[in-house]
Design brief:
The chain has 299 residues and is an alpha/beta fold. It has a domain of 115 residues. Strands 5-6-2-3-4-1-7 form a seven-stranded mixed β-sheet. Strand 3 and strand 4 form a beta hairpin. The N and C termini lie far apart (171 Å).
Length: 299
């Protein structure tokens, strides 16, 4: 029994220490949070539609705190108490109003501007900084919301028949899609087949381009480059051989021409060979005399 009592005592003491530690952490955190924030009061001379506990307090669009309470001071006055960051640059001429997230969103207190040299906001009886919202700004926001809703209502009312027809057409279209779902599936299957064929064609085109690239380039210059190089070397060799052949042909034609001239001048020598050295050479024929001038003119 004593052993069990000791266990219960130790367990109770451990739980108490844990609870105390948690309570200390929460207390320290709340104390730190309280030091980081300060109270701030906003007075609305008129309705503050949409403003509720937990709403945001924004300074130039940046969240600096939240609303902790909203109450009626009199039938025409609403007072909101907020907790904001200590470093919020509040001034006496800071503009206060409401801003909304959409047409039906929760309202937030909006703080804007203020001169840097302006004095801080006045303190209320309990020492809390207090600013009064501009009723014209609140009325402008409310009127803008009302005007927008009225315009939407008017557009819908004026085009009621068109809206109804559009909804009917949409319903007809959806029914048509439902009835032709099998055909649509077939069309989509054909489209998929066409896309697959297109992929195959593109793959073949890639292979063709790869082959052309192999012919035109590559590590060793490419087959096409080697073929062109071989043809060029063959053409150069043929040009050299044809030049030599033309030279030999010209030489042969010269020899034939000289032989024909010798045969024409002395055919006996060509046929029977040269005569003895004692023989006298035949006299050379006399050159023809030039014709008289008169005969040349007649001719």
């Amino acid at each position: 029994m004593e052993t069990r009592a000791n266990y219960v005592l130790i367990g109770s003491f451990t739980l108490a220490v844990i609870a105390a530690a948690i309570g200390f952490v929460l207390w320290f955190q709340s104390l730190h949070t309280t030091k980081q924030r300060m109270p701030f009061r906003v007075v609305f001379e008129g309705p503050a539609a949409g403003l509720r506990n937990g709403g945001s307090v924004n300074f130039n669009g940046i969240r600096v705190g939240e609303v902790v309470s909203v109450k009626l001071d009199n039938p025409r006055r609403v007072v909101a108490l907020a907790m904001i960051e200590n470093n919020t640059p509040l001034r006496k001429d800071t503009l206060v109003g409401l801003e909304f997230q959409g047409l039906t969103g929760v309202a937030a207190i909006s703080l804007k501007g203020g001169e840097e040299a302006a004095p801080p906001p006045p303190l209320d009886e309990d020492g809390i900084p207090t600013l009064t919202a501009d009723p014209n700004k609140l009325q402008d926001v409310t009127e803008a919301i009302r005007a927008t809703l009225q315009n939407i209502n008017k557009i819908v009312a004026d085009n009621q028949e068109s809206v109804k027809n559009s909804l009917k057409n949409l319903e007809t279209f959806t029914n048509s899609l439902a009835r032709n779902s099998e055909k649509i599936d077939g069309v989509m299957a054909k489209v998929d087949g066409v896309l697959l064929k297109a992929d195959g064609v593109m793959l073949k085109a890639d292979n063709v381009m790869l082959g052309l690239n192999t012919l035109a380039g590559g590590k060793d210059g490419g087959e096409l480059f080697l073929t062109v190089k071989s043809i060029r070397e063959l053409a150069e060799d043929f040009d050299k051989r044809s030049g030599a052949l033309m030279t030999d042909g010209r030489r042969t034609l010269g020899d034939i021409s000289r032989a024909v001239n010798n045969f024409d001048r002395n055919p006996t020598r060509v046929l029977f060979g040269a005569s003895n050295s004692s023989a006298q050479p035949a006299p050379a024929p006399e050159p023809p005399k030039p014709a008289p001038a008169n005969e040349r003119r007649r001719q």
